[in-house]
Design brief:
177 residues, mainly alpha, Diphtheria Toxin Repressor, domain 2
């Protein structure tokens, strides 16, 4: 008579903590494959801003040479999906969302820059110093000129939005959005 092993601590061969269904695994792999496919649609400039391994970057660059909607592309996307297993998928997803207009992250970043623009136009040197502490790469002389022009335009009876747009565009360049 054989005695069954005693797994009272829940660490048996079929522990619920370790068990993942095949369906769940396939779903996760398909999500990574879809994320990899989104990587192939980015521009070279956007791709350069995303942190990823060299093998994945090379595979994404290689996908540009393969004709779309072919079996070769389908296999290559599967390879990219496998490489995505070795990467921080959440960070890559967040980075891609920064480029996609309409996403929550993109909208939040734009709202933050709009608040900075309004603070710089309506505020004084304290607001400018706060901005320069947050974004030290900004060219202070150019920034002061843009703020001065936007403030003049805003103080007119019929405000001209063009200088405020130029200021916002520069803030976007500095923030790298």
């Amino acid at each position: 008579m054989t005695q069954e092993p005693d797994f009272k601590d829940g660490q048996g061969p079929e522990s619920e903590e370790d068990w993942v269904s095949k369906t769940q695994v396939k779903k996760e792999v398909n999500e990574l494959k879809a994320l990899g496919e989104r990587l192939t649609t980015l521009t070279s400039e956007q791709l350069g801003k995303i942190e990823m391994g060299d093998r994945l970057r090379a595979a994404v660059e290689e996908s540009r040479r393969i004709k779309p909607r072919t079996n070769a592309m389908k296999r290559h996307l599967g390879f990219i999906g496998k490489l995505m297993l070795l990467e921080d998928a959440e960070q890559i997803q967040y980075s891609i969302e920064q480029f996609s207009a309409g996403t929550t992250a993109h909208t939040a970043a734009f709202a933050k820059l709009e608040r900075w623009r309004d603070r710089l136009i309506n505020g004084g040197n304290n607001e400018l110093q706060a901005y320069l502490e947050a974004y030290p790469a900004a060219d202070i002389q150019h920034l002061r000129q843009l703020i001065r022009n936007a403030s003049k335009a805003a103080s007119k009876e019929t405000p001209d939005p063009a200088p405020a747009r130029k200021l916002f565009k520069y803030l976007r360049e500095v923030a790298d959005i």
